[in-house]
Design a protein that fits this description.
Layout lengths: L9 E9 L8 E2 L18 E9 L2
Antiparallel strand pairs: 1-2, 1-3
The protein binds zinc ion (ZN) (2 copies).
One zinc ion binds next to loops.
Length: 57
Amino acid sequence: MPQTSSSSSKVYTERKWYCHYCGDGPLSCKFDDYCPVCAHGRCDYCQRVKMTYTTGR
Ligand SMILES: [Zn+2]
Ligand SMILES: [Zn+2]
């Protein structure tokens, strides 16, 4: 059996955003429509970022 390097690691991309009002973050685009700190709703001025996670071993 050839010992190929395991390809069990997965890459997850999650979208996050930062409150442009108070700078809180990263907040989840999925679960947080409002900033928990200042209750500002996500708007066009809020910075969005894409976070990439690698899991597996
Ligand atoms: Zn905020
Ligand atoms: Zn905003």
